[in-house]
């Protein structure tokens, strides 16, 4: 397809730029930093931090403190209010919402430079994938990067939350070409119908060659629902005038591997998260789609691309951001200075107006060489639960549980399906809707709300276990902690700290 040839050429160019940066990060990263600072020195942030006087990386570290997302909120609120030249000289084009550490949601402004930076990170991955599986170019791709549905937000600046399409995130120049090879299910006002409609849409595409998602549980929600939804999917296909696809759905369910054999015989690859908590779910995708290449994504946050998958592993996205790597003592290093076998927390400076922004992502440096370092995502700094991409932090959960009049904690559980348990330190609660109330408050986190809406996260269970907080303190004491130092924790990730006795469970 001609469109794929255009995309491949653009991806190859961006990959060349990334590989050149990886071969000399000690020169490329300071140059990128100077470019970002020069472009934004006359902004409110740039003037306050003396961007015009900064000539070295060391100067920048002294002038600009590392900040978490909550510390950027006042600046971003000014942008949303319509104040010009706050973080960037260029006006923002849109906002994106994602999980915050203290507030449930945080806003990230996107500029033209932001989108160019995303393109500089995503296209090298696509070049690698096309090299691994060139027959992807024989068909169309299903890309699910944006939420299926989002609540519209109104700001004084009149800008939307989210761009018009997933293709738009790679810039206006390439968006029309990408739109030719990305198949997009129509929007569904009723989210309950989204699953059937999406399955019917994909079943109609025998030419599907690539599925690109984030969490594998997103895809499992579709694939594992097909047997139960098959009748509705077939009806939708008949109504759309595609009886052949309806017959293929029926055949696909009659044998192992039928999804690949009958529905998507040209499917070459599924790209998704495969590290950490996502690993067992990715393996399940592989079982349902035997023979299809599974491509583990690098780290891409709403704020920036951080790592890019290449043939020898995930490499830092040096053409997307100025990236600092912090060791356990808080010392800052650039990509060429980090050491294999060491663990680092990442801090980014982006063309989109985030300066020494602490992402909180923790990476292991697996190797270091002439082609740059390779990195593996470990998790989030601090206490954070991330079953399917929701990133619930302890501080956010604590704010939610402050509304519960009983001692309580939230506990993630991956099996038999991803969901959360609300552990309550009491025999019972007079509030029969306690779980629903907590679930509603957790919806302030947009990723949690989205995962609940489409079924990636199942309903909250309420566990009544009187004395569980004391039990946890005793468990920690047995492991060497002083009993008085066992702080109350709103988010408990280690289930071994929980008692076996349970008063009752409310589903």
Q: Can you give a write-up of this model?
A:
Helix 1 packs across helix 6 and helix 1 crosses helix 7 (175-181). The chain has helices spanning 2-23, 25-39, 44-48, 57-63, 69-80, 112-132, 175-181, 194-203, 216-223, 226-239, 243-252, 258-263, 279-288, 394-401, 434-442, 446-454, 468-478, and strands spanning 94-99, 105-110, 140-143, 208-212, 269-272, 293-296, 307-310, 313-316, 322-326, 332-333, 343-349, 357-367, 374-380, 384-385, 392-393, 408-413, 419-424, 461-464, 504-506. Helices cover 36% and strands 18% of the residues. The longest helix is centred in the N-terminal third of the chain and has 22 residues, at 2-23. It has two domains: 2-296, no CATH class; 385-506. The model is unreliable at 480-487 (pLDDT under 50). The chain is α+β, with helices and mostly antiparallel strands and 507 residues long. The protein has 17 helices and 19 strands. The N and C termini lie far apart (51 Å). A hairpin with a 5-residue loop joins strand 1 (94-99) and strand 2. The strands form six sheets. A five-stranded antiparallel β-sheet has the order 10-9-11-12-13. A four-stranded parallel β-sheet has the order 3-4-5-6, with no helix packed on it. A four-stranded mixed β-sheet has the order 16-17-18-19, with helices on one face.
